[in-house]
Amino acid sequence: MTDDSNQKLGDLVVFVDTPSATPDAPAAEDATPDAPAAKDAPADETSPTPHPVPLAEAAVNVGDLAVSRGDGIFESIAVIGGRFIALGPHLARLAHSAELLELPAPDLAAFERAARAGVDAHTAEPELLVKLVYSRGIEGDGRASGWVQVLSGANHAEARGRGIRVVTLDRGYRHDIATTSPWLLQGAKTLSYALNKAALREAARRGADDVVFVSSDDVVLEAPTSNVLVRHGDLFRTPRTDLGILAGTTQAAVFDTLDRLGFETAETVLSTAELAAADNIWLLSSGRLVAPVRELDGRAVAVDHELTAKLLDETFGVLAP
Ligand SMILES: Cc1ncc(COP(=O)(O)O)c(C=O)c1O
Prior knowledge:
This protein is α+β, with helices and mostly antiparallel strands. The chain has two domains: 12-153, D-amino Acid Aminotransferase, Chain A, domain 1; 158-316, D-amino Acid Aminotransferase, subunit A, domain 2 (D-amino Acid Aminotransferase, Chain A, domain 2), CATH 3.20.10.10. Helices cover 26% and strands 25% of the residues. The protein contains nine helices and 14 strands. The protein has helices spanning 65-69, 87-100, 108-121, 157-161, 177-180, 194-205, 249-260, 272-276, 305-316, and strands at residues 12-16, 52-54, 72-80, 83-84, 127-135, 145-152, 164-170, 210-214, 227-232, 235-239, 264-268, 280-285, 289-296, 299-300. Strands 7, 8, 9, 10, 11, 12, 13 and 14 form an eight-stranded mixed β-sheet that branches. The protein has a six-stranded antiparallel β-sheet with strand order 2-1-6-5-3-4. A hairpin with a 2-residue loop joins strand 9 and strand 10. Mean pLDDT is 91; it is low at 25-45. The structure holds pyridoxal-5'-phosphate. The site of pyridoxal-5'-phosphate has 14 residues, from helix 7 and strand 12. It comes from Herbiconiux daphne. Keywords: Aminotransferase, Transferase.
C-alpha cells in the first residue's frame, strides 16, 4: 500500500508534475464546443516529492487525450540490476518527440525524479521496465499530463537465446515521408501504437514473432518496437533515422560496442534484397535489448550466438541465457 513505510511495491505508477499552457491541438470537428478555454495553471515553485501508487490503484482521467486520442508520447527504459540504461538519451528523445507533437517541453528533471523514485519503491528485480508517458492532457484544460510506470521486466530469455522469427510487412509509406509529410509524426514515439500492435498480430497469423516494416518503395525501415541491425561480413548497418523511423537508444549503444570491437558500422538505406542477403540480423530495443533473428519470411537466418552474448554483456551487462 502507499504508506510511508519502506515496504516495496510491485508494479506502480508515479504521477509527474507537468508544465501548463499546453498549445491546444487544432479544434477537432467533434470537440466539445463549450470546453473551457486553455488556461495557465499556477506554476509550482517547489518540486513535490514523487509519490508511488500501486499500478492497480493508479487512475487517469477518461478525458485525457492520451486515452481518447493517443495524443501523447512515451519512452520505455530498461533498468538492469537497478541501473537505468541510456536514461539521458531516452529523456532527450522524449523532449524531441514533444517538439514534433508541439507539446510543451516536458520537465525532464521531474520525469527523472519520478522514474528514480518509482524504481526505488519497486521490489528489486533483475530487469525492470520504466515507461514515461507524456500526454496533451485533458481536452481544453491547457495542461499536459505525465506519469511514470515501473513494471517488472518480461522474460526475454527465449528471444535473446534462441532468436526470433520475423516477417517483412509493407508499412504503406514511401521511405521519404518524414520529409514530405511531417504531420504523420514518423520518428516521434507517440502513444498511438494500435498499428504496431496490428502488425504484430499479422506476424503471429503468419507464424512469426515480430515484423520488419518496409517502405512501399522497398526500403527496410524498423520493427514495431525495435530497430533493425544487419550484418554483411564485418559491416554492420542499420536504417538511417531520416527514413521516418525512431532513433533507437539500443541501436546507438550497440553501435558503440561494435565500434569498440573493431567492426565497421553505418546508418544507411537498405533494400529488402540486402536484408534477405544478410549474414545475420538482429532486432534492437530497450526491453528485449538484442534479439537475433533466426527466420526471415519463413527462411532460416544464421544466428551468431557468441556475438549476441558479447553485445548483451558488453553493452548492457546482461548475460545471455
Ligand atoms: C517504432 C520503434 N522503433 C524503434 C524502437 C527502439 O528504440 P529503443 O532502442 O530506444 O527502445 C522502438 C522502441 O520502443 C520503437 O517503438
